[in-house]
Write a structure and sequence with these properties.
By secondary structure, the chain is an alpha/beta fold. It is 37% helix and 12% strand. It has a single domain, classed as TIM Barrel (Alpha-Beta Barrel). The radius of gyration is 18 Å and the shape is globular.
């Protein structure tokens, strides 16, 4: 049985900037390629512009370079199109959504936020693994909530219609976003803390609250957030999906692979071409075909189209 996938997070754009990756070919360690996406029936792929603060190039310049790579991808490969409200997964194209991971590029400037929106950015998370002037990170030192500047940027994101992503955010930051956002928020690539006690995983109450407000939670494939050994398998991903569904319902869970953002992949899910094995594992777990379709594709699609 064939299922399409919508994937809420990958780091291909950083590789395109730093290593010269092209989605039409495959270089060492690259997993997001046209062939892999097509073989795995990926229909929607979120592409994150993540800036490395350790590089000499300023974060804003990095993000602009990655946005340039994003638009070049569409010019060079017509099989890829920006997601639109009328997109259907059986059209033979792969739809893309441009996001920003870590808002160091903003410098707390609403003007830069608006420029990024004009360039096509439709979702953003405030932090990666370190605290910044907008918020505390889940793996940061202080793990504080949103700063005053962060609250103002969130308010402007709501006004523009840009999705707020709580992945990598501190617990206090998630609580602030849940109370302050006037639009549904989501977690692009976060797992369940009840199953794996890691700061990047979500508490049960947050999964329930995100679902109640109309958001979705993307389950990622990063071993240290799936199981204690760090050497994950598809069954570990399924376990987190089942737990999230038990809390938020089948309509609140999606896929957020984090492909090209890790060094080691589940042994039976090494790139997008292996996604059909995950779909079959969900069927074997007892999900109906309609439920697998919702988790794999429809939930994320329905969430993000409200921001287009």
């Amino acid at each position: 049985m064939k299922f399409y996938t919508a994937d809420a997070h990958c780091d291909f754009l950083f590789g395109a900037m730093e290593y010269g990756w092209d989605i039409g070919t495959q270089k060492r360690d690259q997993t997001i390629t046209k062939e892999n996406l097509q073989r795995g029936c990926t229909a929607i792929q979120f592409l994150a512009a993540w800036s490395d603060t350790k590089l000499r190039v300023p974060p804003l310049e990095q993000v602009l370079i990655m946005i340039d790579r994003y638009h070049n991808l569409h010019e060079k490969h017509p099989e890829f199109v920006p997601l639109t409200k009328d997109f259907t997964p059986d059209c033979g194209r792969i739809a893309t959504v441009l996001t920003v991971e870590g808002a160091e590029c903003l410098g707390a400037s609403p003007s830069i936020l608006r420029d990024l929106y004009r360039l096509g950015v439709r979702a953003m998370t405030f932090t990666w693994n370190s605290d910044n002037e907008l918020a505390g990170a889940g793996e940061g030192k202080k793990r504080r909530g949103l700063s005053e500047a962060g609250r103002e940027i969130l308010k402007e994101m709501n006004r523009l219609g840009m999705a707020f992503d709580v992945s990598h955010l501190s617990d206090a930051g998630i609580e602030d976003a849940l109370s302050l956002s006037t639009q549904p928020i989501f977690a692009s690539h976060s797992n369940c803390r009840a199953l794996m006690n890691a700061p990047r995983c979500l508490e049960d109450d947050y999964i329930r609250a995100i679902a109640k407000k109309g958001g979705v939670v993307g389950i990622n494939f990063y071993g240290p957030q799936l199981c204690k050994s760090g050497y994950a398998e598809i069954r570990d991903i399924v376990r987190h999906i089942c737990h999230a569904v038990s809390l938020g319902g089948v309509g609140a869970v999606c896929i957020g692979s984090d492909f090209d953002g890790m060094q080691r992949y589940p042994k039976d899910l090494k790139n997008p071409s292996d996604l059909p094995a995950l779909h079959q594992a969900l069927l074997a777990e007892g999900f109906t075909p309609a439920e697998v379709h919702r988790i794999a594709y429809q939930n994320l699609h329905d969430y993000i189209v409200q921001f287009l």
